[in-house]
Amino acid sequence: MSAAPEFPLIVTIADAAHGRTIAVEADADARARIAARLGLAGLDRFTLTAEVRAIAGGIAAKGAVQADLVQNCAATDLPVPAAISESFDLRFLRDVDAPPSEDEEIELGSDELDLLALEGDRIDLGDAAVQTLSLALDPFPRHPDADRILAEKGVLSEEAAGPFAALAKLRGKPDA
User: Fold this and answer.
1) Spatial separation of the C-alpha atoms in residues 33 and 11, rounded to whole Å
2) Alpha-carbon distance 111 to 108, whole Å?
């Protein structure tokens, strides 16, 4: 059993049949659930804007997510605020997982990179938006003062502790 989605936004093929514009903002509860899922220290704003339309075999969704968030510094655990604006262009298709025939050549172009499986006749655009945000996050956020703070605690920088620094010491040069 999978957990309930943090920001559910169901769109059906019928909803998308004539095209639909979506603009939603997550409330405080949804933002707290999204922050917990993504390991964020805070999520002050999360919005989704999209144009959805029916296409052969599924639904197309093109739009953007925007967020004001706080991550923890990978080195010091200090808060690192960030503003993210990430666009997406997704295709949810019925046969996205269908195995190709043996003599069918598979060529991935940029249009095929954001293909997702259509769940029956519906998609969860909210979950796709959360996934888009997760891919846009800095995997190793660093506080601007991280190097200074680490140096004050006696942690050597990579330059001071790396192999070239060791070679410089062997050659008798104090600074590489």
Assistant:
1) 21
2) 8
Q: Check pLDDT > 70 for residue 157.
A: no
pLDDT digits (tens, 9 = 90+) for 20-62: 999 999 999 999 999 999 999 999 999 999 999 999 999 999 9
**How far is the C-alpha of 148 from the C-alpha of 51, rounded, in Å?**
46
Gap between the Cα atoms of 56 and 54, Å rounded: 7
Q: End-to-end distance of the chain based on CA atoms, in angstroms?
A: 56
Instruction: Could you list the beta-strand ranges (E) of 73-162.
Output: 79-93, 115-117, 122-124
Say what the pTM is. Answer: 0.76
Q: Residue 86 burial (CB < 10 Å; 0-12/13-18/19+)?
A: middle
